[in-house]
Amino acid sequence: MDTCNAVTKFEPSHLASEQLDSFVSSYDTPPIVASRDDSSPDVQKLTLIRGIPGSGKTTFANTLTASVVVEADQYFIDKDGAYQYENHLIKEAHNWCQLETKRLLKAGHNVAVANTFVKNWEMKFYKSLADDMELAFEVIEMTGNYQNVHGVPDAIVKRMASQFESLEVSLSSVRG
User: Fold this and answer.
1) I want to staple 10 with a disulfide (CB 3.0 to 4.6 A). Which of 15, 31, 71, 172 is the partner?
2) Is the pTM of this model over 0.90?
3) Which SUPFAM superfamilies would you find in this protein's record (predicted)?
4) Are strands 2-3 and 32-35 parallel, antiparallel or unpaired?
5) Which residues pair with 33 in a beta bridge?
């Protein structure tokens, strides 16, 4: 197992040229890969995409065509496709996200989880899951500054930014 101790600039070599051009041109600040797995495409992978609301997590996740995207926010999408956030259900939403990730990984899919992951402990379930299943694992930190699509109030975004923890080294190991 290799350990990556440095945060490096994101180099999305897995994106098609036109996707890459479109993605890069839309960002002031490119995302950062906190740990990177450069193994073959045959290796199953779990990718975590972290950042405060409005940093570009969902937009970036949707460019990862080889992965199924899972977000806690999906729990709040009703049968008509409308986003209906309810704060008192946030724990259930994150539990659903973890279970859905595990289900998809067990079915053989690559999975990209795009959540804020403000605190390191919020990523530990996923890291343990990747280790237990002997999967490649990476954490990508989004640093863009855009209008958030879920209408999170500016005061909450600022609070989250002030509480955002640097990635622990223990979360940056990869398999390949």
Assistant:
1) 31
2) no
3) P-loop containing nucleoside triphosphate hydrolases
4) unpaired
5) 8, 140
